[in-house]
Amino acid sequence: MSDAEILARIREIFKENFDIDPSRVTPEAHLFAELDLDSIDAVDLAIKLQEMTGRRIKPEEFKSVRTVGDVIAAVQSLLATQA
């Protein structure tokens, strides 16, 4: 899955679950400062990413995620472990 495909899926998740306009979801966007996610939203996002990838996200790996670009990288990492 390419970064562009992952970004498109992430935009869908943000629109459906957090009512965030997809145009605001860019790789540079900060999850907490710009997109107004809180810690509960971060847990929800991790669950959605697990559903998307079929892989469990380790909490310590997700703690370093700050931007949408970090989320894309985390998804790529999860997908790479499937291969």
TrEMBL record:
In-chain residues carrying the UniProt-annotated modification O-(pantetheine 4'-phosphoryl)serine: 39
One Pfam match: PP-binding
Post-translational modification: 4'-phosphopantetheine is transferred from CoA to a specific serine of apo-ACP by AcpS. This modification is essential for activity because fatty acids are bound in thioester linkage to the sulfhydryl of the prosthetic group.
GO cellular component, one term: cytosol
Record GO biological process: lipid A biosynthetic process
Coiled coil spans: none
Primary location group: cytoplasm
Location(s), subcellular: Cytoplasm
A Gene Ontology molecular function term of the record: acyl carrier activity
SUPFAM superfamilies (UniProt xref): ACP-like
Entry superkingdom: Bacteria
UniProt pathway annotation: Lipid metabolism; fatty acid biosynthesis
Keywords: Cytoplasm, Fatty acid biosynthesis, Fatty acid metabolism, Lipid biosynthesis, Lipid metabolism, Phosphopantetheine, Phosphoprotein
InterPro entries per record: ACP, ACP-like_sf, PP-bd_ACP
Carrier domain mapped to chain residues: 4-79
Role, per record: Carrier of the growing fatty acid chain in fatty acid biosynthesis.
Similarity remark: Belongs to the acyl carrier protein (ACP) family.
HAMAP family in the cross-refs: Acyl_carrier
NCBIfam families on file: PRK05350.1
Protein name (Swiss-Prot/TrEMBL): Acyl carrier protein
Species: Paraburkholderia tagetis
